[in-house]
Specification:
The protein is mostly helical. The chain has a domain of 49 residues. It has 2 helices and no strands. Helix 1 runs antiparallel to helix 2.
């Protein structure tokens, strides 16, 4: 994506140059400001973001999913092993 933006910027610079070269009467006004340095910084930020998001799945699994599975398994086992004959109530 960043390379495509750089290519687009190059094309716009070429268009600006060609317009300046061939527009002898100056009727066409076109000016392009290159943002290539910003594209590179954006790419580097994307790389950092990508490295963090690659770790999210593992963190969610360890911190949320695994403890939940353990607790739900313990609950299900308790419910499975429960017998109504072990419980009593007072008659009122």
């Amino acid at each position: 994506m960043i390379d495509d933006l750089k290519d687009l910027s190059d094309n716009l610079e070429d268009a600006e140059s060609d317009i300046a070269k061939y527009d002898s009467d100056g009727v066409i006004s076109f000016h392009h400001t290159s943002q290539k340095s910003k594209y590179q910084a954006l790419y580097e930020d994307f790389e950092v973001l990508h490295s963090f998001t690659g770790k999210v799945g593992d963190i969610v699994d360890r911190r949320i999913d695994h403890p939940f599975y353990e607790e739900i398994d313990a609950f299900v086992e308790t419910m499975r092993d429960a017998t109504i004959s072990k419980y009593t109530t007072k008659n009122r």
